[in-house]
Amino acid sequence: MPENKPRYLMGVGTPDYLIEAALAGIDMCDCVLPTRIARHGTAMTANGKVVIKNKKYERDFTPLDSECDCYTCKNYTRAYIRHLINMNEILGMRLLSIHNLRFLTKLMERVRIEIEHDNLVNFRDEFYQKYGYNK
Q: Tens digits of per-residue pLDDT, 62-84?
């Protein structure tokens, strides 16, 4: 492929595939995954996926992701989001979508920084360990 043309990969939305795509020289990705999994009650967090429907979040009054600066994490608890999702309230799906999109945006901001510092491979390994990937 020409070096001066952007490389686009459609249908890639998981954190590991986004990092691997960047390592392979891909410039742009897009996918419905962050909003699709949000509609079904799953959030991407700094420590891995959170399936908010699970009973263990019923009385969890902490933010969805303590490392996140999104509107959802600043204003809502896991317990409340769980309640919304389990009651099939669209607000819960929207809040998780907002969070997942911000999570991936922050991830790619960090990927760009790590590329500039020639440290993407080390970042990938650290991210995988923290996120719970066994690669």
A: 999 999 999 999 999 999 999 99
Q: For the beta carbon of residue 24, count every other beta carbon within 10 angstroms.
A: 9
Owner of token pair 């999104």: 70
Ordered alpha helix ranges (H), 1-135: 15-23, 33-39, 71-75, 78-86, 90-116, 120-131
Q: Please tell me the pTM assigned to this model.
A: 0.93
d(CA 15, CA 107): 8
Gap between the Cα atoms of 119 and 8, Å rounded? 22
Q: What is the full DSSP assignment across 38-51?
A: HHTTEEEETTEEEE
Distances (CA, A) of 114 to 10, 22, 101: 23, 11, 20
Which of these, 87, 84, 1, lies nearest to 43 by C-alpha position?
A: 84
DSSP H or E segment with residue 6: none
